[in-house]
Amino acid sequence: MERSGARAARPAEAEFRTPAVDIFETDDSVVLLADMPGVNEKSVEVAVEQDTLTIAGRVEAKPAERARVYTEYASRPFRRSFTLSVDLRRDGIEGKMRNGVLRLTLRKAEEAKARRIPIKS
Amino acid sequence: MYDPLAEIETLQSRLMDLFTGGSFGRSDVAGDFPPLNVDNGDGDLVVTAELPGMSFDEIDVSMSGNVLTVRGTRKPEIEAPGKAYYRRERPSGAFCRALQLPERVTGEAAEATYTDGILTVRVPKAPEVKPHRVVVRNP
Q1: What is the pLDDT of residue B129?
Q2: For A45, which of A53, A120, B31, B103 is 20 to 30 Å away at the CA?
């Protein structure tokens, strides 16, 4: 039987793992933290294309001299995409990779920043 | 050709999209934390754990007989108060995993390293289970 349809339409799912993320908002930015164990600053990729932010990372394969006898995780590359809000600036995205965690800081556009209203006594 | 199986899969993936909202994917984190792999070498066993966002002095690794225990606490990110979370998928809190290794080992000689969020514990096998080379001589 021919297998087509859904499987063929989403080939990326089998190749990539989806990293767990935390996303939170501060006064002037949105911060994204992504767990990508085995990825370092050389093997991480962050790309913005129009409204889509994509994070990806390669991991090193298991050394060939040993045989895997027990498996709970697959050493496959990570990849995940997000839709960016219009309130976030596309430029000046800051990224840091430390101990397998990617930290992205996306600055809010000026209009989207919470305005602080001074209160006079 | 009509393929009912493909139809069901399409429906299933659409339903998943409905639950996952704006993002294209969903997190793969499930089950025990941290996930472990075991590799068997000639003279050692290598256990790796995906344990991102820790520092090496926060991870406690111990061996008792051939049982390896990895424990620690993954602290949640502390930021300015009043921050609003859109997504919170990364596991945090105390964890403890114990794993019985599939061979007899010399636990005192185990070595652990922590790089890029991956803990690697190398445990030499006990001398009696290490493979020995038998020399074949001419009579």
Answers
A1: 83
A2: B31
